[in-house]
Amino acid sequence: MEVDFYGFALQDVDDGQVPVEYPEGREARNAFLTAREGRLDIESAGHTHTATLSAEVWDGEPPAAEGRGDWEERAEAQFHSPSGELAVWAVTGGPMDTYLNLSNAGGSWRVRVYCEGRAEVRRLAAEDVPEGFEHYLVQFWPATA
């Protein structure tokens, strides 16, 4: 997945249901994770590079991923996905050809985002366009009332 201008987003594929389309309203380099209606803004440690993204969809709250990586950043949020399917968006490139299917119907979700490789990509991105040093794990599960 391509990261540019220190960020990317996971946005509902039904753009008509997203009040503010990425990257509008983005608070660049502020919070690691910002949840909005229909989208999740994620901030990277490197300006321009290629990162990896793994996603897990659970029926209930998953076990924490501690011990599954050298996580340098972790955040949790709740958001609403009108369609139940998310596209990965770059800041300037718009939607990529990567989609995450959460469910066959929209709903409210909890999400936990982890990241490792931030220190290394920060160092390398100052000199070049690194590939594959930063890794994200996102865990989704239905939000309960």
Short synopsis of the structure:
The protein is mainly beta and 145 residues long. It has one helix and ten strands.
Describe the protein's architecture and organization.
It is a single chain. With 145 residues, the chain is mainly beta. The relative contact order is 0.28. It has one helix at 118-125, and strands at residues 2-3, 7-12, 33-36, 39-43, 49-57, 73-81, 85-90, 94-101, 107-116, 131-142. It is built from 1 helix and 10 strands; from the N terminus they run E-E-E-E-E-E-E-E-E-H-E. It has a single domain (2-142), classed as Competence, DNA-entry nuclease inhibitor, ComJ (Substrate Binding Domain Of DNAk, Chain A, domain 1). The strands form 2 sheets. Strands 1-5-10-9-6 form a 5-stranded mixed β-sheet. A 5-stranded antiparallel β-sheet has the order 3-4-2-7-8, with no helix packed on it.
Write the layout of secondary structure elements.
Layout: E1 2-3, E2 7-12, E3 33-36, E4 39-43, E5 49-57, E6 73-81, E7 85-90, E8 94-101, E9 107-116, H1 118-125, E10 131-142
Parallel strand pairs: 5-10
Antiparallel strand pairs: 1-5, 2-4, 2-7, 3-4, 6-9, 7-8, 9-10
Note the main attributes of this structure.
145 residues, mainly beta, Substrate Binding Domain Of DNAk, Chain A, domain 1, five-stranded mixed β-sheet, 1 helix, 6% helix, globular
